[in-house]
Design brief:
alpha/beta, Trna Endonuclease, Chain: A, domain 1, 5-stranded mixed beta sheet, 7 helices, 5 strands, about 75% helix, about 10% strand, DNA recombination, DNA recombination protein RmuC, coiled coil, DNA_recombination_RmuC
Amino acid sequence: MRDSGRRQDEQQRTFIDALQKNSSDMGERLDRASQVIGTVQKSIGEFSEIGRSIKDLQDYISSPKLRGNMGEHILGETLKQMLPSDLFVLQYPFPNGEIVDALIRLQEDSIPIDAKFPMANFKQMHHTTVEKEKKDFEKLFIRDVIKHIGDIARKYIRTDQGTIDYAIMYVPSEAVFYEAIMQDAIQEAAREKRVVMVSPSTFHAFLRAVLMSLQGVRIQKEAKEILAIIHSSKQEYEKISDSLSTLDKHLSNAYNQLQQVNKFFVQLGQRLTRAQSISIETEKETKKIA
């Protein structure tokens, strides 16, 4: 009986120890879980703050003036990366007070570039899920772009002040650019007003074409300078050739004169020799007679 009681006590103590250990482990796990939940809640709070900040930034960017400034900034950075600084001017003022966002300088002409683009109705067109509203915003977007094309042509195409007879409209978004060029009315207005629409990718291609054109002009100019040097050298060569020909004639005449003088000199020497010989013979004969 005593052995049986001891075994029961031992089993009871073992069971109690196990319960206490499990209770301790459970407490530690709950503590860790509480810490994890606290960290998650903190992260959720941070994400919520980031979300509010992003919304505030979107609302801030929605300002048309700010979008224009961003477009101008992107345009300026692109020009700085692609062209030498002496080939473009940012915020160029025309004599009448109009200021174009950028002006590319060519050899004799210049290309005006506008970077302000009407985006408000494009955003509304893509945000709405109502089909009728989408169509209405699309019409307003087309109207805005056509009006902007007319403003660019009126303000910046000034051939009497050194610009070429077209202007560039820089669209700082590929999505907006492709939406615009898919509209026949916008395309027709751009052709009529001589305004070329470019996106960031097509603008890079346009600038590369400008660079190649300028390099071609530079090579042509250098080739003309080389031809002018060759032509001038040819004229100098002809002058030197004429001088050498005249000198050769003079040298030939001098040589002939030298030969003639030498011939006369030899003949004179021969005559003097004969005269001397005759004088000696006469003297001998005189002595004999005496």
